[in-house]
């Protein structure tokens, strides 16, 4: 399993870096949209859609929402308002996971996919437009947290984080992920000191830790819906990792939080 994870990561990692740094904005938008729609296909199982026609209809609904959101923003719509709504959703998701993880039905699972996937796509597109390096750093931050949580949790994990949702995750793993991400945040301070220019290095590190905490909520939320659907993985497209959702679940919560923090806290020079 670990060997497959490493091999897949060694293939996906360089491809993602090259795409982020060298693809034109519009092409990258399309690539990200394709990834989100692949995630929507996997998510369509959570509300209990089994027929291909129903699953394609759900994917089409998400595609329409992506297009509508981009059209609205392209014509002066307020991105910050959408990000605050997204933040409220993730706070609700946290309460949901902690208080009532078994209270999932077809309607709630279907609507949740909209709040999970569409804002994440918009946030990633906006980050890339601000600076491709910001989007790349976010992915590296999530990967570092994932690696830290995996190895620390595997070696020292004793206390379950959310046994009703994801029995394999532990508080020790969370600590390992936060420590690893703090180290990556320190690298980010050096990385962005000149371009695009940090105004508050300590605030940036704090934001990175908060973003990783949000990414954990994203991971647990997807796990909650997978458990409701009786699935271990959202798909089988990525050997050792599962499906597309299993790779982007943390990013779905992390990207809007990172963008909102950067823009509203004024951490970057204009």
TrEMBL record:
Subcellular location as annotated: Cell membrane
UniProt-listed Pfam families: CTP_transf_1
Topology class, membrane: Multi-pass membrane protein
Keyword Transmembrane helix carried by entry: yes
GO CC, alphabetical: plasma membrane
Enzyme class: transferase
GO molecular function: phosphatidate cytidylyltransferase activity
EC number: 2.7.7.41
Keywords attached to this entry: Cell membrane, Lipid biosynthesis, Lipid metabolism, Membrane, Nucleotidyltransferase, Phospholipid biosynthesis, Phospholipid metabolism, Transferase, Transmembrane, Transmembrane helix
GO biological process, one term: CDP-diacylglycerol biosynthetic process
Catalytic activity reported: a 1,2-diacyl-sn-glycero-3-phosphate + CTP + H(+) = a CDP-1,2-diacyl-sn-glycerol + diphosphate
Span of the signal peptide: none
Source species, domain of life: Bacteria
Associated pathway: Phospholipid metabolism; CDP-diacylglycerol biosynthesis; CDP-diacylglycerol from sn-glycerol 3-phosphate: step 3/3; Lipid metabolism
Similarity remark: Belongs to the CDS family.
Protein name, UniProt field: Phosphatidate cytidylyltransferase
Organism of derivation: Steroidobacter denitrificans
């Amino acid at each position: 399993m670990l060997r497959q994870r490493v091999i897949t990561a060694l293939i996906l990692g360089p491809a993602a870096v090259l795409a982020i740094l060298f693809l034109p904005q519009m092409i990258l938008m399309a690539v990200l949209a394709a990834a989100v729609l692949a995630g929507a296909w996997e998510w369509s199982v959570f509300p209990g859609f089994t027929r291909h026609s129903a699953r394609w209809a759900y994917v089409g609904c998400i595609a329409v929402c992506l297009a509508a959101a981009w059209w609205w923003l392209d014509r002066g719509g307020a991105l910050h308002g959408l990000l605050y709504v997204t933040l409220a959703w993730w706070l609700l998701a946290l309460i949901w996971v902690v208080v009532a993880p078994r209270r999932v039905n077809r309607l709630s699972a279907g609507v949740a996919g909209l709040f999970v996937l569409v804002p994440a796509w918009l946030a990633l597109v906006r980050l890339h437009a601000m600076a491709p390096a910001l989007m790349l750093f976010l992915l590296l931050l999530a990967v570092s947290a994932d690696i830290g949580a995996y190895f620390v949790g595997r070696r020292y994990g004793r206390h379950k984080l959310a046994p009703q949702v994801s029995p394999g995750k532990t508080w020790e793993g969370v600590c390992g992920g936060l420590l690893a991400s703090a180290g990556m945040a320190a690298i980010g301070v050096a990385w962005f000191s000149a371009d695009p220019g940090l105004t508050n290095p300590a605030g940036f590190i704090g934001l990175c830790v908060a973003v990783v905490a949000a990414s954990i909520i994203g991971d647990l939320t997807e796990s909650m819906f997978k458990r409701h659907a009786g699935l271990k993985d959202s798909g089988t497209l990525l050997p050792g990792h599962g499906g597309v959702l299993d790779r982007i679940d943390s990013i779905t919560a992390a990207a809007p939080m990172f963008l909102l923090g950067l823009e509203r806290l004024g951490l970057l020079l204009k």
